[in-house]
Amino acid sequence: MRNPIWKIATTHLLAKKRQTLVATLGVTFGIMIFIFQAGLITGFQAVFIEETVNSTANIHIFNEPDKDRPSIIQRVHGTDPERWIVVRNQKPKDELNKIRNGFQIIEALERHPDVSGVSPFLGAQAILRAGIVQYGGRLAGVDIEKEDINFRVSDYMIQGDVSRLKSTNNGIILGDGLADKLGVKMNDNLTVLTPNGNSLEMKVVGINHTGLTEVDKNRAYISIRNAQRLLEVDNSYITDINIKLKNIDKAEALAREFERKFGYKAEDWKTANASIFSVFKIQNMVTFLIIASILIVSGFGIFNILMMIIYEKMPDIAILKAIGYKDRDIRRLFLIESLVIGVIGGLMGLIMGFLLSRFVGSIRMDVKGFVSMEYLRFNDSPGFYVFAFIFALIATSLAGYFPARKASKVDPIDIIRSK
Predict the structure, then answer these.
(1) What is the pLDDT of residue 81?
(2) What is the end-to-end Cα distance of the chain in Å, rounded?
(3) Is the pLDDT assigned to residue 317 strictly greater than 90?
(4) Who contacts 206 (Cβ-Cβ below 8 Å, separation ≥6)?
Protein backbone atom coordinates (compact mmCIF):
# COMPACT_ATOMS: atom_id res chain seq x y z
CA MET A 1 0.00 0.00 0.00
CA ARG A 2 2.21 2.83 -1.29
CA ASN A 3 -0.28 5.70 -0.92
CA PRO A 4 0.21 7.10 2.61
CA ILE A 5 -3.40 8.39 2.74
CA TRP A 6 -4.72 4.84 2.30
CA LYS A 7 -2.25 3.56 4.90
CA ILE A 8 -3.35 6.15 7.46
CA ALA A 9 -7.05 5.43 6.72
CA THR A 10 -6.49 1.70 7.26
CA THR A 11 -4.66 2.37 10.51
CA HIS A 12 -7.53 4.54 11.79
CA LEU A 13 -10.16 1.93 10.96
CA LEU A 14 -8.16 -0.94 12.49
CA ALA A 15 -7.50 1.09 15.62
CA LYS A 16 -11.28 1.16 16.21
CA LYS A 17 -12.04 -2.42 15.25
CA ARG A 18 -15.24 -2.85 17.23
CA GLN A 19 -16.80 0.44 16.09
CA THR A 20 -15.71 -0.17 12.50
CA LEU A 21 -17.26 -3.64 12.61
CA VAL A 22 -20.56 -2.26 13.98
CA ALA A 23 -20.72 0.43 11.27
CA THR A 24 -19.90 -2.10 8.54
CA LEU A 25 -22.53 -4.52 9.83
CA GLY A 26 -25.07 -1.67 9.85
CA VAL A 27 -24.50 -1.12 6.13
CA THR A 28 -24.49 -4.91 5.55
CA PHE A 29 -27.78 -5.32 7.36
CA GLY A 30 -29.40 -2.42 5.45
CA ILE A 31 -28.36 -3.75 2.04
CA MET A 32 -29.29 -7.33 2.96
CA ILE A 33 -32.79 -6.23 3.99
CA PHE A 34 -33.04 -4.11 0.84
CA ILE A 35 -32.16 -7.06 -1.41
CA PHE A 36 -34.45 -9.44 0.47
CA GLN A 37 -37.52 -7.28 0.99
CA ALA A 38 -37.48 -5.31 -2.26
CA GLY A 39 -36.64 -8.52 -4.17
CA LEU A 40 -39.55 -10.32 -2.51
CA ILE A 41 -42.08 -7.55 -3.19
CA THR A 42 -41.04 -6.87 -6.77
CA GLY A 43 -40.80 -10.62 -7.40
CA PHE A 44 -44.35 -11.06 -6.16
CA GLN A 45 -45.50 -8.18 -8.34
CA ALA A 46 -43.71 -9.68 -11.35
CA VAL A 47 -45.54 -12.99 -10.82
CA PHE A 48 -48.88 -11.22 -10.65
CA ILE A 49 -48.20 -9.22 -13.84
CA GLU A 50 -46.87 -12.29 -15.65
CA GLU A 51 -49.89 -14.41 -14.75
CA THR A 52 -52.30 -11.56 -15.53
CA VAL A 53 -50.75 -10.86 -18.93
CA ASN A 54 -50.53 -14.54 -19.87
CA SER A 55 -53.93 -15.78 -18.70
CA THR A 56 -56.23 -12.77 -19.14
CA ALA A 57 -57.04 -10.35 -21.96
CA ASN A 58 -54.65 -7.47 -22.63
CA ILE A 59 -57.69 -5.54 -23.82
CA HIS A 60 -61.25 -6.46 -23.01
CA ILE A 61 -64.15 -5.09 -25.10
CA PHE A 62 -67.59 -5.28 -23.57
CA ASN A 63 -71.00 -3.64 -23.64
CA GLU A 64 -71.13 -1.46 -20.54
CA PRO A 65 -74.67 -0.82 -19.22
CA ASP A 66 -75.79 2.82 -19.56
CA LYS A 67 -76.08 4.02 -15.93
CA ASP A 68 -76.82 7.68 -16.75
CA ARG A 69 -79.58 7.29 -19.28
CA PRO A 70 -82.19 10.10 -19.10
CA SER A 71 -85.66 9.33 -17.80
CA ILE A 72 -88.67 9.31 -20.14
CA ILE A 73 -89.86 12.64 -18.64
CA GLN A 74 -86.47 14.21 -19.34
CA ARG A 75 -86.65 13.00 -22.92
CA VAL A 76 -90.07 14.60 -23.32
CA HIS A 77 -89.29 17.92 -21.62
CA GLY A 78 -85.61 18.18 -22.57
CA THR A 79 -82.74 19.20 -20.28
CA ASP A 80 -83.78 22.81 -19.63
CA PRO A 81 -81.68 23.90 -16.57
CA GLU A 82 -84.56 26.14 -15.34
CA ARG A 83 -86.88 23.15 -15.14
CA TRP A 84 -86.47 20.79 -12.20
CA ILE A 85 -87.41 17.16 -12.92
CA VAL A 86 -87.09 14.46 -10.26
CA VAL A 87 -87.70 10.77 -11.00
CA ARG A 88 -87.15 8.42 -8.10
CA ASN A 89 -86.53 4.66 -8.18
CA GLN A 90 -85.80 4.58 -11.87
CA LYS A 91 -85.06 0.95 -12.75
CA PRO A 92 -82.25 0.04 -15.11
CA LYS A 93 -83.33 -0.85 -18.59
CA ASP A 94 -83.71 -4.58 -19.19
CA GLU A 95 -81.33 -4.89 -22.11
CA LEU A 96 -78.92 -7.55 -23.25
CA ASN A 97 -75.17 -7.14 -22.91
CA LYS A 98 -74.73 -8.45 -26.39
CA ILE A 99 -72.03 -6.99 -28.61
CA ARG A 100 -73.75 -6.45 -31.90
CA ASN A 101 -71.82 -7.68 -34.94
CA GLY A 102 -69.34 -9.20 -32.50
CA PHE A 103 -67.87 -11.71 -34.94
CA GLN A 104 -67.44 -9.00 -37.60
CA ILE A 105 -65.58 -6.89 -35.04
CA ILE A 106 -63.38 -9.90 -34.25
CA GLU A 107 -62.51 -10.30 -37.94
CA ALA A 108 -61.56 -6.61 -38.14
CA LEU A 109 -59.43 -6.87 -35.00
CA GLU A 110 -57.60 -9.95 -36.28
CA ARG A 111 -56.37 -7.87 -39.24
CA HIS A 112 -54.95 -5.14 -36.94
CA PRO A 113 -51.12 -5.11 -37.06
CA ASP A 114 -50.73 -4.77 -33.26
CA VAL A 115 -53.09 -7.63 -32.38
CA SER A 116 -51.75 -11.18 -32.04
CA GLY A 117 -55.06 -12.90 -31.31
CA VAL A 118 -58.76 -12.34 -30.59
CA SER A 119 -61.31 -14.65 -29.01
CA PRO A 120 -65.05 -14.35 -28.42
CA PHE A 121 -66.37 -14.67 -24.88
CA LEU A 122 -69.79 -15.12 -23.35
CA GLY A 123 -69.76 -14.48 -19.63
CA ALA A 124 -72.56 -15.23 -17.19
CA GLN A 125 -73.06 -15.75 -13.48
CA ALA A 126 -74.29 -19.21 -12.51
CA ILE A 127 -74.77 -21.54 -9.59
CA LEU A 128 -72.76 -24.74 -9.79
CA ARG A 129 -74.24 -27.59 -7.78
CA ALA A 130 -72.65 -30.91 -6.91
CA GLY A 131 -74.98 -32.93 -4.70
CA ILE A 132 -75.99 -30.69 -1.83
CA VAL A 133 -72.99 -28.38 -2.30
CA GLN A 134 -73.58 -25.34 -4.45
CA TYR A 135 -71.37 -22.37 -5.16
CA GLY A 136 -71.64 -19.23 -7.30
CA GLY A 137 -69.21 -18.98 -10.17
CA ARG A 138 -68.49 -17.13 -13.37
CA LEU A 139 -69.16 -19.11 -16.56
CA ALA A 140 -66.70 -18.37 -19.34
CA GLY A 141 -68.21 -19.46 -22.63
CA VAL A 142 -65.25 -19.66 -25.02
CA ASP A 143 -63.99 -21.00 -28.30
CA ILE A 144 -61.47 -23.19 -26.52
CA GLU A 145 -59.07 -23.46 -29.50
CA LYS A 146 -58.71 -19.67 -29.80
CA GLU A 147 -58.67 -19.26 -26.02
CA ASP A 148 -55.85 -21.77 -25.72
CA ILE A 149 -53.77 -20.11 -28.46
CA ASN A 150 -54.21 -16.61 -27.03
CA PHE A 151 -54.20 -17.26 -23.29
CA ARG A 152 -52.30 -20.55 -22.94
CA VAL A 153 -55.12 -22.35 -21.15
CA SER A 154 -53.40 -25.75 -21.59
CA ASP A 155 -50.28 -24.46 -19.76
CA TYR A 156 -52.35 -24.03 -16.62
CA MET A 157 -54.14 -27.40 -16.74
CA ILE A 158 -53.31 -29.57 -13.75
CA GLN A 159 -55.76 -32.33 -14.70
CA GLY A 160 -57.46 -33.21 -17.99
CA ASP A 161 -57.00 -31.66 -21.42
CA VAL A 162 -58.50 -28.58 -23.04
CA SER A 163 -59.39 -30.57 -26.18
CA ARG A 164 -61.99 -32.52 -24.17
CA LEU A 165 -64.03 -29.33 -23.79
CA LYS A 166 -64.67 -29.53 -27.51
CA SER A 167 -64.95 -33.31 -27.85
CA THR A 168 -67.19 -33.85 -24.80
CA ASN A 169 -70.78 -32.77 -25.33
CA ASN A 170 -71.35 -31.00 -21.99
CA GLY A 171 -67.81 -30.62 -20.71
CA ILE A 172 -66.68 -28.06 -18.14
CA ILE A 173 -63.20 -27.01 -16.94
CA LEU A 174 -63.07 -25.70 -13.38
CA GLY A 175 -60.54 -23.57 -11.57
CA ASP A 176 -58.90 -25.64 -8.84
CA GLY A 177 -60.29 -23.36 -6.10
CA LEU A 178 -63.82 -23.77 -7.45
CA ALA A 179 -63.40 -27.55 -7.78
CA ASP A 180 -62.20 -27.74 -4.15
CA LYS A 181 -65.21 -25.78 -2.92
CA LEU A 182 -67.60 -28.02 -4.81
CA GLY A 183 -65.69 -31.17 -3.83
CA VAL A 184 -65.64 -32.50 -7.40
CA LYS A 185 -62.90 -34.32 -9.30
CA MET A 186 -62.20 -35.28 -12.89
CA ASN A 187 -65.16 -36.91 -14.72
CA ASP A 188 -67.59 -36.04 -11.92
CA ASN A 189 -70.96 -34.61 -12.94
CA LEU A 190 -72.43 -31.37 -11.68
CA THR A 191 -75.39 -29.13 -12.45
CA VAL A 192 -75.08 -25.58 -13.78
CA LEU A 193 -78.02 -23.25 -13.10
CA THR A 194 -78.36 -19.80 -14.68
CA PRO A 195 -80.35 -16.80 -13.34
CA ASN A 196 -83.05 -17.34 -15.99
CA GLY A 197 -83.84 -20.77 -14.50
CA ASN A 198 -82.14 -22.99 -17.06
CA SER A 199 -79.94 -25.86 -15.98
CA LEU A 200 -77.53 -28.23 -17.65
CA GLU A 201 -75.83 -31.41 -16.43
CA MET A 202 -72.11 -31.14 -17.16
CA LYS A 203 -69.06 -33.36 -16.78
CA VAL A 204 -65.75 -32.13 -15.34
CA VAL A 205 -63.20 -32.64 -18.14
CA GLY A 206 -60.39 -30.57 -16.69
CA ILE A 207 -59.11 -28.59 -13.71
CA ASN A 208 -56.76 -25.65 -14.14
CA HIS A 209 -54.69 -23.40 -11.92
CA THR A 210 -53.64 -19.94 -13.15
CA GLY A 211 -52.16 -18.78 -9.84
CA LEU A 212 -54.61 -15.84 -9.72
CA THR A 213 -56.61 -16.73 -6.62
CA GLU A 214 -59.87 -14.97 -7.47
CA VAL A 215 -59.88 -16.40 -10.99
CA ASP A 216 -59.21 -19.96 -9.79
CA LYS A 217 -61.98 -19.70 -7.18
CA ASN A 218 -64.66 -18.49 -9.57
CA ARG A 219 -64.03 -19.27 -13.24
CA ALA A 220 -65.46 -22.26 -15.13
CA TYR A 221 -64.81 -22.74 -18.85
CA ILE A 222 -67.62 -24.15 -20.99
CA SER A 223 -68.04 -24.08 -24.74
CA ILE A 224 -69.59 -20.92 -26.15
CA ARG A 225 -72.32 -23.11 -27.67
CA ASN A 226 -73.35 -24.46 -24.25
CA ALA A 227 -73.26 -20.96 -22.77
CA GLN A 228 -75.64 -19.77 -25.52
CA ARG A 229 -77.93 -22.74 -24.81
CA LEU A 230 -78.03 -21.96 -21.09
CA LEU A 231 -78.89 -18.31 -21.73
CA GLU A 232 -81.32 -19.14 -24.57
CA VAL A 233 -79.67 -16.78 -27.03
CA ASP A 234 -78.73 -17.18 -30.68
CA ASN A 235 -75.34 -18.33 -31.89
CA SER A 236 -74.17 -14.77 -32.67
CA TYR A 237 -74.58 -13.70 -29.04
CA ILE A 238 -71.33 -12.80 -27.26
CA THR A 239 -70.80 -10.41 -24.36
CA ASP A 240 -67.07 -9.77 -24.58
CA ILE A 241 -64.15 -9.75 -26.98
CA ASN A 242 -60.77 -10.62 -25.49
CA ILE A 243 -57.68 -9.33 -27.26
CA LYS A 244 -54.06 -10.44 -27.03
CA LEU A 245 -51.48 -7.86 -28.14
CA LYS A 246 -48.01 -8.20 -29.59
CA ASN A 247 -46.78 -5.42 -27.29
CA ILE A 248 -48.64 -5.01 -23.99
CA ASP A 249 -47.16 -1.53 -23.48
CA LYS A 250 -49.50 -0.30 -26.23
CA ALA A 251 -52.59 -1.63 -24.43
CA GLU A 252 -53.82 1.71 -23.06
CA ALA A 253 -53.54 3.59 -26.39
CA LEU A 254 -55.06 0.72 -28.39
CA ALA A 255 -57.97 0.40 -25.93
CA ARG A 256 -58.87 4.05 -26.59
CA GLU A 257 -58.55 3.45 -30.35
CA PHE A 258 -60.84 0.39 -30.30
CA GLU A 259 -63.36 2.16 -28.08
CA ARG A 260 -63.66 5.02 -30.58
CA LYS A 261 -63.73 2.70 -33.57
CA PHE A 262 -66.29 0.11 -32.41
CA GLY A 263 -68.40 2.11 -29.95
CA TYR A 264 -68.04 -0.32 -27.03
CA LYS A 265 -66.15 0.03 -23.77
CA ALA A 266 -62.53 -1.18 -24.14
CA GLU A 267 -60.50 -1.70 -20.98
CA ASP A 268 -56.77 -2.43 -20.91
CA TRP A 269 -55.25 -4.84 -18.40
CA LYS A 270 -53.65 -2.10 -16.27
CA THR A 271 -56.94 -0.23 -15.87
CA ALA A 272 -58.75 -3.47 -15.02
CA ASN A 273 -56.25 -4.11 -12.20
CA ALA A 274 -55.77 -0.47 -11.14
CA SER A 275 -56.67 -1.10 -7.50
CA ILE A 276 -54.04 -3.82 -7.19
CA PHE A 277 -51.37 -1.68 -8.86
CA SER A 278 -52.18 1.08 -6.34
CA VAL A 279 -51.42 -1.37 -3.53
CA PHE A 280 -48.14 -2.24 -5.25
CA LYS A 281 -47.15 1.45 -5.37
CA ILE A 282 -47.78 1.79 -1.63
CA GLN A 283 -45.78 -1.38 -0.97
CA ASN A 284 -42.83 -0.05 -2.98
CA MET A 285 -42.94 3.29 -1.18
CA VAL A 286 -43.04 1.64 2.27
CA THR A 287 -40.18 -0.67 1.34
CA PHE A 288 -38.03 2.23 0.15
CA LEU A 289 -38.72 4.19 3.35
CA ILE A 290 -37.78 1.21 5.54
CA ILE A 291 -34.52 0.62 3.69
CA ALA A 292 -33.69 4.34 3.66
CA SER A 293 -34.31 4.46 7.43
CA ILE A 294 -31.94 1.54 8.02
CA LEU A 295 -29.20 3.13 5.92
CA ILE A 296 -29.67 6.51 7.61
CA VAL A 297 -29.17 4.83 11.00
CA SER A 298 -26.06 3.13 9.60
CA GLY A 299 -24.92 6.51 8.29
CA PHE A 300 -25.19 8.02 11.77
CA GLY A 301 -23.02 5.15 13.03
CA ILE A 302 -20.33 5.94 10.46
CA PHE A 303 -20.63 9.65 11.25
CA ASN A 304 -20.07 9.00 14.98
CA ILE A 305 -17.08 6.74 14.40
CA LEU A 306 -15.37 9.25 12.12
CA MET A 307 -16.04 12.10 14.55
CA MET A 308 -14.49 10.05 17.37
CA ILE A 309 -11.45 9.34 15.21
CA ILE A 310 -11.11 13.03 14.34
CA TYR A 311 -11.17 14.13 18.00
CA GLU A 312 -8.72 11.42 19.02
CA LYS A 313 -6.42 12.06 16.07
CA MET A 314 -6.32 15.86 16.28
CA PRO A 315 -2.53 15.86 17.00
CA ASP A 316 -1.98 13.51 14.04
CA ILE A 317 -4.02 15.80 11.78
CA ALA A 318 -2.00 18.80 12.99
CA ILE A 319 1.27 16.98 12.24
CA LEU A 320 0.04 15.93 8.78
CA LYS A 321 -0.83 19.53 7.99
CA ALA A 322 2.46 20.76 9.45
CA ILE A 323 4.49 18.48 7.16
CA GLY A 324 2.65 19.67 4.06
CA TYR A 325 -0.62 17.78 3.70
CA LYS A 326 -3.35 19.96 2.20
CA ASP A 327 -6.95 20.36 3.36
CA ARG A 328 -8.12 18.24 0.43
CA ASP A 329 -5.76 15.41 1.55
CA ILE A 330 -7.27 15.41 5.04
CA ARG A 331 -10.78 15.50 3.53
CA ARG A 332 -9.86 12.62 1.23
CA LEU A 333 -8.48 10.63 4.17
CA PHE A 334 -11.80 10.56 6.03
CA LEU A 335 -13.88 10.10 2.91
CA ILE A 336 -11.79 7.02 2.11
CA GLU A 337 -12.51 5.67 5.58
CA SER A 338 -16.28 6.06 5.10
CA LEU A 339 -16.13 4.58 1.60
CA VAL A 340 -14.15 1.56 2.82
CA ILE A 341 -16.94 0.89 5.32
CA GLY A 342 -19.54 1.41 2.57
CA VAL A 343 -17.82 -0.85 0.02
CA ILE A 344 -17.13 -3.72 2.43
CA GLY A 345 -20.56 -3.44 4.10
CA GLY A 346 -22.31 -3.10 0.75
CA LEU A 347 -20.61 -6.15 -0.80
CA MET A 348 -21.30 -8.24 2.29
CA GLY A 349 -24.94 -7.05 2.20
CA LEU A 350 -25.31 -8.07 -1.45
CA ILE A 351 -23.91 -11.54 -0.78
CA MET A 352 -25.99 -12.09 2.35
CA GLY A 353 -29.13 -10.70 0.70
CA PHE A 354 -28.63 -13.06 -2.26
CA LEU A 355 -28.07 -16.09 0.00
CA LEU A 356 -31.03 -15.20 2.23
CA SER A 357 -33.32 -14.79 -0.82
CA ARG A 358 -32.18 -18.15 -2.23
CA PHE A 359 -32.66 -19.88 1.10
CA VAL A 360 -36.17 -18.50 1.71
CA GLY A 361 -37.06 -19.08 -1.96
CA SER A 362 -36.26 -22.78 -1.57
CA ILE A 363 -38.74 -23.24 1.28
CA ARG A 364 -42.22 -24.36 0.26
CA MET A 365 -44.71 -21.75 1.45
CA ASP A 366 -48.06 -22.34 -0.36
CA VAL A 367 -48.76 -18.60 -0.37
CA LYS A 368 -52.32 -17.54 -1.20
CA GLY A 369 -53.09 -13.87 -1.87
CA PHE A 370 -53.64 -11.98 -5.13
CA VAL A 371 -51.69 -14.85 -6.59
CA SER A 372 -50.99 -18.29 -5.18
CA MET A 373 -47.45 -19.68 -5.20
CA GLU A 374 -45.83 -22.78 -3.77
CA TYR A 375 -42.47 -21.02 -3.49
CA LEU A 376 -41.71 -17.34 -3.07
CA ARG A 377 -40.14 -15.73 -6.12
CA PHE A 378 -37.48 -13.05 -5.71
CA ASN A 379 -36.39 -10.38 -8.16
CA ASP A 380 -32.70 -11.18 -8.80
CA SER A 381 -32.13 -8.75 -11.65
CA PRO A 382 -28.44 -7.59 -11.78
CA GLY A 383 -29.61 -3.98 -12.08
CA PHE A 384 -31.35 -4.38 -8.76
CA TYR A 385 -28.08 -5.32 -7.02
CA VAL A 386 -26.19 -2.48 -8.73
CA PHE A 387 -28.79 0.01 -7.51
CA ALA A 388 -28.52 -1.30 -3.92
CA PHE A 389 -24.71 -1.04 -3.96
CA ILE A 390 -24.71 2.50 -5.38
CA PHE A 391 -27.32 3.48 -2.80
CA ALA A 392 -25.03 2.16 -0.03
CA LEU A 393 -22.05 4.12 -1.38
CA ILE A 394 -24.05 7.35 -1.57
CA ALA A 395 -25.35 6.91 2.00
CA THR A 396 -21.89 6.21 3.45
CA SER A 397 -20.28 9.01 1.41
CA LEU A 398 -22.76 11.51 2.81
CA ALA A 399 -22.14 10.16 6.32
CA GLY A 400 -18.40 10.65 5.87
CA TYR A 401 -18.48 14.01 4.12
CA PHE A 402 -19.25 16.22 7.13
CA PRO A 403 -16.61 14.74 9.47
CA ALA A 404 -14.10 14.94 6.59
CA ARG A 405 -14.99 18.58 6.01
CA LYS A 406 -14.58 19.33 9.71
CA ALA A 407 -11.20 17.60 9.82
CA SER A 408 -9.94 19.54 6.80
CA LYS A 409 -10.64 22.85 8.61
CA VAL A 410 -8.59 22.00 11.68
CA ASP A 411 -5.89 24.64 12.37
CA PRO A 412 -2.62 22.86 13.40
CA ILE A 413 -1.34 25.91 15.34
CA ASP A 414 -4.37 25.91 17.65
CA ILE A 415 -3.94 22.20 18.35
CA ILE A 416 -0.20 22.49 19.07
CA ARG A 417 -0.81 25.49 21.37
CA SER A 418 -3.48 23.60 23.29
CA LYS A 419 -0.97 20.82 23.96
Answers:
(1) 66
(2) 32
(3) no
(4) 157, 159, 160, 161, 162, 164, 165, 171, 173, 174, 186, 221
